[in-house]
TrEMBL record:
It comes from the Eukaryota. This is tRNA methyltransferas-like protein. Belongs to the WD repeat TRM82 family. It comes from Lophium mytilinum. SUPFAM superfamilies: Putative isomerase YbhE. Keywords: Nucleus, Repeat, tRNA processing, WD repeat. It is found in: Nucleus. The lineage of its organism: Eukaryota, Fungi, Dikarya, Ascomycota, Pezizomycotina. GO terms for biological process: tRNA (guanine-N7)-methylation. Pathway: tRNA modification; N(7)-methylguanine-tRNA biosynthesis.
Length: 477
């Protein structure tokens, strides 16, 4: 069975042709690039190696096979996709090898690999800053790194020189004592132990590419955002901020580089993990995670503006669609929701709109945000043919956004574990955002996808890993 698309991105790389578009979708270890003209290309993280064939081998009865090499490792699965604002580069994260990869994207959608940089810990979130010249990478260990989008050759030379200097200064330890100068039994034993010691090679050396460690949390990071605010004076430089969310209910507001060590404030109000952050067009911060509510923030003043229930719309959806599978609960109060995505919809009006998805819930929830009057509310619930895995917006002109949703066609809607009994060919669903207020009009889009070699256990964690952030009673932090 074909593997669903865990990540999707849509863009228009040709500025001269506004009718053309490119859809980038990650399925297991592969990245598919589909152009509006019909051209399709595929990049895979799987390294293909074929054994050599010798024509002059003797034709004798085969002997006992000897296993000379290890079996090929499973290819790493793509966990994140980010496209630059000029649509010329794609940043991808592969989970198992903790690698940050950058591709050049041409006008036809073809991907050209430029660099791959293995990070010390698995990246959990990435974003682009400084006119897309720098990548911010937040990892599972709680650290945030800044890396150039396209490394220059001089960066590698500087890293090599620094590593050589460090290697020369770290010489092996040689004791000054000898068996002729040590007489007591205890000291002689200590000397023998010192002589047996060898310089152990480090399991993890320094990163061999330019990078800057900006800040760190004491918990696993889940999301990262970046914002610029114009200075009070026209000639003043804009102020920059980094937003980081972690598993321990924290949302931290730090200054942008090079002052990222300075913490401006915290947005405190969540009781469970924070999985997603979103900035609206008017500048409000919206956060969601394992709580029953979304929270709207005046983040500059670290002030909570309002809470919007996400649990009640989920309950109402399952009541209206009893055919969908759902986790058994003793009561409605025991239902746990896990926000898997929040996306701001660009709008010319003063009111902001956001789309929200929850893990294992086959629906999109459209909210209207009005933080000034504190009357934000659910505007519409949009049923889907399956659980949403990712979502992307594609501008179609006249203030209209095309919403493309990646659907899990392998599991029953409403369940994260139960496989479908009936085969469904829809793996992408397209929705049109009507600016006139007619709501969202849906139509299904079928996309062919070949068999994928991705490992199911690893893919399950990528598809449905949000709920695993919730701390269990009696479990270690």
């Amino acid at each position: 069975m074909a593997v669903p698309f865990q990540c999707v991105q849509a863009c228009r790389p040709d500025p001269q042709d506004h009718s053309s578009w490119v859809l980038l979708a990650a399925s297991g270890p592969r990245i598919y690039s589909c152009h509006s003209s019909g051209a399709t290309s595929v990049w895979s993280s799987q390294k293909i190696s074929e054994p050599p064939v010798h024509a002059d081998e003797p034709q004798e009865p085969p002997g006992k096979k000897v296993k000379l090499s290890k079996q090929a490792e499973e290819p790493p699965n793509v966990s994140k996709l980010v496209v630059t604002s000029d649509y010329q580069h794609l940043v991808a994260v592969t989970a198992e090898d903790k690698c940050l990869r950058v591709f050049r994207l041409d006008l036809t959608g073809r991907l050209e690999p430029l660099s791959e940089r293995p990070m010390p810990k698995r990246p959990c979130a990435v974003t682009l800053i400084e006119n897309d010249a720098t990548i911010l990478c937040a990892d599972k260990f709680g650290d945030v790194y800044a890396l150039p989008l396209v490394p220059s050759p001089t960066d590698a030379d500087d890293i090599f020189v620094a590593a050589q200097e460090k290697k020369e200064t770290s010489a092996s330890f040689v004791p000054t004592a000898t068996p002729l100068t040590v007489h007591s039994g205890r000291n002689r034993k200590a000397l023998e132990d010192q002589l047996k010691q060898k310089l152990q090679p480090k399991t993890k050396g320094p990163l061999k590419f330019k990078h800057d460690l900006l800040l760190g949390h004491v918990s696993m990071l889940t999301d990262i955002l970046y914002a610029e605010i114009a200075g009070e004076k026209a000639e003043a430089k804009p102020r920059t901020y980094i937003f980081t969310a972690d598993r321990d209910e924290h949302i931290r507001i730090s200054r942008g580089p090079p002052q990222s060590h300075i913490i401006e404030g915290f947005c405190q109000g969540h009781r469970e993990f924070v999985s997603k952050l979103c900035l609206t067009g008017s500048g409000d911060l919206i956060s969601g995670g394992g709580d029953d509510d979304l929270i709207v923030w005046d983040w500059l003043n670290s002030r909570m503006l309002e809470k919007i229930s996400i649990k009640q719309p989920v309950l109402d959806f399952f009541k209206a669609h009893p055919q969908h599978a759902r986790p058994p609960q003793e009561s409605e109060g025991d239902l746990k929701v896990a926000v898997s995505g929040i996306w701001a919809i660009p709008s010319s009006s003063s009111r902001d709109s956001v789309l929200v998805t929850c893990e294992g819930v086959p629906a999109l929830f459209l909210f209207k945000i009005d933080s000034e009057k504190k009357v934000s509310s659910l505007q519409q619930t949009l049923p889907l043919v399956g659980n949403p895995l990712d979502l992307t917006l594609l501008e179609s002109g006249q203030s209209t956004e095309v919403i493309i949703v990646s659907i899990d066609h392998t599991r029953e809607p409403g369940s994260t574990t139960m496989l479908r009994q009936k085969e469904v060919n829809v793996i992408l669903e397209q929705l049109n955002d009507q600016a006139q207020g007619d709501g969202l009009l849906g139509r299904e889009v079928e996309v062919a996808n070949a068999e994928n070699p991705g490992k199911q256990a690893a893919l399950q964690d990528i598809f449905y890993g949000i709920e695993n952030l919730r701390k269990r009673a009696g479990a270690e932090d």
